[in-house]
Design brief:
Structural class: alpha+beta
Number of domains: 1
Distance between the termini: 74 Å
Shape: rod-shaped
Number of helices: 3
Strand content: 15-25%
Helix content: 25-40%
Number of strands: 5
Largest sheet: 5 strands, antiparallel
Length: about 160
């Protein structure tokens, strides 16, 4: 007479648990670097938002006074991933009337070219502290029809 077991076996074997842990490890090794890159891109996106604001302020100033304004590097302190406070007292910014909503990670400046007929707003960023400075530029309408230039698209 065959023997029957009165209590059913339940649960997972050790091999099944090891396979699940290995799969989770593989997925995590793929997801973590992608997440880090997404965080860096989000931090760097501040530059385009601020450059749009600077561009708008420059065009408004030009419409009112028939001239553009150059503005020195602001906040002007060392680049890094830490946010720094904006300093409206730095040359050109108070007259231009631009100030970001909060602290920033990039340095911003505006330079005039063509005898003051067009400008280039520049953001210098290093949001990952690797000493590779990302440079993003926004040109005035007179120069290039409102174009963007990302000098180092893979640098953060």
């Amino acid at each position: 007479m065959p023997r029957t077991c009165n209590h059913p076996t339940a649960g997972f074997t050790l091999v099944e648990l090891m396979i699940v842990v290995a799969i989770i490890g593989i997925l995590a090794s793929i997801a973590v670097p992608n997440f880090n890159n997404a965080v860096l891109k989000a931090r760097r996106s501040e530059a385009k938002v601020c450059l749009d604001g600077i561009h708008t302020a420059e065009e408004a100033y030009n419409a009112a006074f028939d001239a553009y304004i150059d503005a020195s590097s602001n906040p002007g302190s060392a680049l890094g991933k830490e946010q720094r406070n904006w300093n409206p007292a730095i040359s050109g910014w108070e007259q231009l009337g631009y100030s970001p909503a909060g602290a920033v990670r990039c340095n911003y400046m505006v330079a005039l070219y063509g005898g003051g007929t067009w400008f280039r707003a520049t953001a210098n960023c290093d949001v990952d502290d690797d000493n590779q400075i990302a440079i993003i530029r926004r040109y005035s309408s007179e120069y290039s029809g409102d174009s963007w230039v990302d000098v180092h698209p893979d640098w953060y």
